[in-house]
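Recall that a protein's primary structure is simply its ordered list of amino acids. Everything else, from secondary elements to tertiary packing, is in principle encoded there. The following example makes that idea concrete.
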Amino acid sequence: MSRHLAEATKQEIALRRRAHIHEPQRVGHQFVDAMAWFFGSPLFGVLFTVLTAVWLRWLEEPPYGTFTMVLSLLAIYMAWVLLMNQNRQAAKDRQRDDLEAAEVDEMVKLNQQQVEHDQWTRRDMERQDHDLVAIGRALKAELGRR
Protein backbone atom coordinates (compact mmCIF):
# COMPACT_ATOMS: atom_id res chain seq x y z
CA MET A 1 0.00 0.00 0.00
CA SER A 2 2.78 2.45 0.85
CA ARG A 3 4.48 1.83 -2.50
CA HIS A 4 1.23 2.66 -4.30
CA LEU A 5 0.86 5.80 -2.18
CA ALA A 6 4.45 6.80 -2.99
CA GLU A 7 3.78 6.35 -6.73
CA ALA A 8 0.60 8.44 -6.48
CA THR A 9 2.51 11.17 -4.63
CA LYS A 10 5.23 11.16 -7.31
CA GLN A 11 2.58 11.54 -10.01
CA GLU A 12 0.92 14.45 -8.18
CA ILE A 13 4.28 16.19 -7.78
CA ALA A 14 5.01 15.68 -11.49
CA LEU A 15 1.60 17.13 -12.43
CA ARG A 16 2.18 20.17 -10.22
CA ARG A 17 5.58 20.68 -11.84
CA ARG A 18 3.96 20.65 -15.27
CA ALA A 19 0.96 22.84 -14.40
CA HIS A 20 2.79 26.11 -15.09
CA ILE A 21 3.65 25.02 -18.62
CA HIS A 22 0.02 25.03 -19.75
CA GLU A 23 -1.14 28.19 -17.99
CA PRO A 24 -1.33 31.25 -20.26
CA GLN A 25 1.19 33.75 -19.01
CA ARG A 26 -0.40 36.94 -20.31
CA VAL A 27 -3.72 38.20 -21.59
CA GLY A 28 -2.12 38.63 -25.02
CA HIS A 29 -1.24 34.93 -25.07
CA GLN A 30 -4.82 34.03 -24.27
CA PHE A 31 -5.99 36.29 -27.10
CA VAL A 32 -3.54 34.72 -29.57
CA ASP A 33 -4.64 31.23 -28.50
CA ALA A 34 -8.28 32.16 -28.99
CA MET A 35 -7.59 33.70 -32.41
CA ALA A 36 -5.59 30.67 -33.55
CA TRP A 37 -8.40 28.41 -32.39
CA PHE A 38 -10.97 30.52 -34.25
CA PHE A 39 -8.93 30.64 -37.47
CA GLY A 40 -8.74 26.85 -37.41
CA SER A 41 -12.43 26.28 -36.65
CA PRO A 42 -15.15 25.27 -39.10
CA LEU A 43 -17.09 28.34 -37.98
CA PHE A 44 -14.38 30.60 -39.41
CA GLY A 45 -14.45 28.69 -42.71
CA VAL A 46 -18.20 29.09 -43.03
CA LEU A 47 -18.23 32.76 -41.99
CA PHE A 48 -15.34 33.60 -44.30
CA THR A 49 -17.01 31.85 -47.23
CA VAL A 50 -20.31 33.67 -46.63
CA LEU A 51 -18.57 37.05 -46.18
CA THR A 52 -16.56 36.52 -49.37
CA ALA A 53 -19.67 35.60 -51.35
CA VAL A 54 -21.57 38.64 -50.04
CA TRP A 55 -18.64 40.97 -50.72
CA LEU A 56 -18.06 39.72 -54.26
CA ARG A 57 -21.78 39.68 -55.11
CA TRP A 58 -23.00 42.98 -53.66
CA LEU A 59 -20.19 45.17 -52.27
CA GLU A 60 -17.65 45.51 -55.04
CA GLU A 61 -17.40 45.48 -58.80
CA PRO A 62 -14.61 43.73 -60.71
CA PRO A 63 -11.53 43.89 -60.64
CA TYR A 64 -11.99 43.56 -56.85
CA GLY A 65 -9.04 45.76 -55.79
CA THR A 66 -10.30 46.48 -52.28
CA PHE A 67 -11.24 42.83 -51.75
CA THR A 68 -7.75 41.71 -52.83
CA MET A 69 -6.12 44.19 -50.46
CA VAL A 70 -8.33 43.16 -47.50
CA LEU A 71 -7.75 39.49 -48.24
CA SER A 72 -3.97 40.04 -48.34
CA LEU A 73 -4.04 41.91 -45.02
CA LEU A 74 -6.14 39.16 -43.47
CA ALA A 75 -3.66 36.53 -44.69
CA ILE A 76 -0.75 38.50 -43.21
CA TYR A 77 -2.57 38.92 -39.90
CA MET A 78 -3.55 35.24 -39.75
CA ALA A 79 0.01 34.14 -40.52
CA TRP A 80 1.36 36.42 -37.78
CA VAL A 81 -1.12 35.08 -35.19
CA LEU A 82 -0.49 31.46 -36.15
CA LEU A 83 3.29 31.91 -36.03
CA MET A 84 3.03 33.50 -32.59
CA ASN A 85 0.92 30.58 -31.43
CA GLN A 86 3.38 28.06 -32.88
CA ASN A 87 6.30 29.82 -31.17
CA ARG A 88 4.50 29.71 -27.82
CA GLN A 89 3.66 26.03 -28.32
CA ALA A 90 7.29 25.29 -29.20
CA ALA A 91 8.39 27.05 -26.00
CA LYS A 92 5.90 24.96 -24.00
CA ASP A 93 7.19 21.81 -25.69
CA ARG A 94 10.80 22.71 -24.81
CA GLN A 95 9.84 23.33 -21.17
CA ARG A 96 7.95 20.03 -21.01
CA ASP A 97 10.82 18.16 -22.67
CA ASP A 98 13.36 19.65 -20.27
CA LEU A 99 11.19 18.73 -17.30
CA GLU A 100 10.65 15.19 -18.57
CA ALA A 101 14.38 14.78 -19.21
CA ALA A 102 15.08 15.88 -15.63
CA GLU A 103 12.46 13.42 -14.36
CA VAL A 104 13.98 10.60 -16.40
CA ASP A 105 17.44 11.46 -15.07
CA GLU A 106 16.06 11.41 -11.54
CA MET A 107 14.34 8.06 -12.14
CA VAL A 108 17.55 6.57 -13.57
CA LYS A 109 19.49 7.83 -10.55
CA LEU A 110 16.91 6.41 -8.13
CA ASN A 111 16.86 3.12 -10.02
CA GLN A 112 20.66 2.93 -9.86
CA GLN A 113 20.56 3.62 -6.13
CA GLN A 114 17.97 0.87 -5.70
CA VAL A 115 20.12 -1.57 -7.69
CA GLU A 116 23.15 -0.72 -5.56
CA HIS A 117 21.09 -1.11 -2.38
CA ASP A 118 19.81 -4.49 -3.59
CA GLN A 119 23.36 -5.61 -4.38
CA TRP A 120 24.57 -4.60 -0.92
CA THR A 121 21.59 -6.34 0.68
CA ARG A 122 22.25 -9.50 -1.34
CA ARG A 123 25.95 -9.45 -0.40
CA ASP A 124 25.08 -8.88 3.24
CA MET A 125 22.61 -11.78 3.16
CA GLU A 126 25.21 -14.02 1.49
CA ARG A 127 27.70 -13.09 4.22
CA GLN A 128 25.13 -13.84 6.88
CA ASP A 129 24.31 -17.17 5.19
CA HIS A 130 28.00 -18.00 5.05
CA ASP A 131 28.41 -17.06 8.71
CA LEU A 132 25.37 -19.14 9.69
CA VAL A 133 26.70 -22.14 7.75
CA ALA A 134 30.06 -21.74 9.47
CA ILE A 135 28.38 -21.49 12.88
CA GLY A 136 26.25 -24.55 12.06
CA ARG A 137 29.35 -26.54 11.05
CA ALA A 138 31.15 -25.43 14.18
CA LEU A 139 28.18 -26.47 16.35
CA LYS A 140 27.93 -29.80 14.53
CA ALA A 141 31.65 -30.40 15.02
CA GLU A 142 31.35 -29.44 18.70
CA LEU A 143 28.36 -31.75 19.19
CA GLY A 144 30.18 -34.51 17.33
CA ARG A 145 33.09 -34.32 19.80
CA ARG A 146 30.87 -34.73 22.81
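The chain has a mean pLDDT of 85. The two ends are 52 Å apart (CA to CA).
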